[in-house]
Design brief:
The chain contains five helices and seven strands. It is an alpha/beta fold.
Length: 177
């Protein structure tokens, strides 16, 4: 481990064999670990190192590897550093355990990731859509989602030619092919 990583963090990471940690900046560290170890890491960071704030959970789709990468961003106020804990889970079935019981804001982030990527978080308080409430298509943030294919399958194309545009084009303005 780097000298840039605070001593309190070094002691936490020593308790979890297999966690790879490296400093990524003066006040940032990245931890890569097996998904089974994440809840324990979050508990240790919160209880022993003061990482009380889960500022975000990010999701990256890696279709070539058939995986999703979940990144948990944690902040400590007393030791102003950010830890990004990275795990990878299979795209199929696209499930992981909710960490809502450790960090309540996770409920919002997990709900958003469920809606946009289709990952189900077991034990999450609410997996109902909140942005795409009328959406009938597949999760739109997956890299294999095709906006063009979805539009062609969902909507009927029609020519757009209101009278005001026809007049404008007749006078040399507007869009002319």
């Amino acid at each position: 481990m780097s000298e840039q990583i605070p001593v309190v963090l070094q002691s936490v990471f020593r308790e979890l064999p297999g966690v790879q940690v490296r400093a990524t900046g003066p006040r940032r560290a990245r931890a890569d670990l097996h998904p089974d170890r994440l809840p324990t890491l979050l508990e240790l960071l919160k209880g022993r190192a003061g990482y009380l704030h889960l500022s975000a959970i990010s999701c990256v789709d890696w279709p070539a590897n058939d995986e999703f990468e979940l990144v948990y961003h944690l902040v400590a106020y007393e030791t102003p550093t950010l830890i990004s804990a990275h795990i990878r889970i299979p795209r199929d079935p696209g499930q992981y355990v909710s960490v809502y019981d450790i960090h309540a804001p996770a409920g919002f982030f997990e709900r958003d990731i469920h809606e946009m990527f289709g990952i189900h978080f077991e034990g999450a308080p609410n997996m109902e859509p909140f942005i795409l409430t009328e959406w009938q298509g597949p999760p739109p943030m997956r890299k294999d989602f095709s906006t063009i294919d979805h539009v062609n399958a969902t909507y009927a194309w029609q020519e757009y030619g209101p009278e005001w545009l026809k007049e404008l084009e007749a006078n040399g303005g507007g869009f002319v092919e």
